[in-house]
Amino acid sequence: MKTHSFDPLGSKAKLLAFLITIGASSIGFGQSTWNNAAGGNWITGGNWTPTGSPSSVGAVTNFGDLAGTSRVVTLTTNHTVGTMNFTGADGYNFAAATPVTLNMNVVSGNAVWNMSMVDPSGGVSFNSNITIALQDNLQVNNLSGSTKFIVYNGTMTGTSQLIINGRLAIFGSDNRTGNTVINSGILQVGSSGGTITASPNIIINGGTLTHITNSNVIANTTAITLNGGTWSMVNVNETVASLTVSANSTIDTDSVGVSILNFTGGATYTGGTLTIIGWQGSLGGGGAEQIIFGSPVSSTFLNNIFWQAQNITGAFQLGSGEIVPVPEASNILGGIGLALAAIGYEVKRRRALKVKVEPAA
Q1: Which residues contact 218 (CB under 8 A, 6 or more apart)?
Q2: Distance CA 356, CA 46 (A)
């Protein structure tokens, strides 16, 4: 005798529920293009083609040429998108009078900001009332040789990664707890108060982390990995956790201003040459410009440091933890020679003095 379990939905109902679920997860893959040259509210359906305000997981939004000028797109409520494309010459300034959240969320892969603006008057900015919440990794791309920055003035949150393949200026607070990865382009912090407060790792595979003017804008617990890129700083003091060098990379301390870089931990070396540009410190340590480690570093790491301004390969770690260029061999030999000459002169002087004072036999 067969027994049957009770199925309240039935096989057809289950199939229908499954299809509805799949359909719901696919919403947002359509293209929505901003069409109001004068600017306006994001939530107004008529400002978009096709008509309807985009706000769903994976939504693709396009912001292109309309009137050759910049415009304000106002957010009055929270929205969710997966991709934002910025093309042409027109600028777009996203603004909110009260705090709102723009969620970056996709069904698979990374959320994306694509910048391909070519006109110097164009640009993209988000004001301080807009929180960017990363539900997925956010990848910033620059296309078609664009040299424009996306300027972010608000707060960035989430546990996902920020991946830089373009140009992003953080003038607000990046409070994410995910890694920051720079593959190409520029990530700018420090200027206008921009901070990275909680990212555990900043990994520079290429491109540049530009650190301007303001000091202590990166969390003290953040570890820095240089895997082919550049950390450029202008007149700042910064404390971070540690340094890893795994490929030819650069620390540019700027030849105009002076910067002090303090690693509370040590350095890990796995390959490549670390080139230090613009260093203006003292060979004896304690100068205006310093690079300091809180733990002893290996001789292998020290031997693979090149000081460009001094044209010296090799470093020495002082008792204070500061690293300085190894003096050139010719200077060392010259110094030894001068010291020996001074000693010889003093011996002769004392001998001559002794002859003068001793009484005749």
Answers
A1: 189, 195, 196, 202, 211, 238, 240
A2: 109
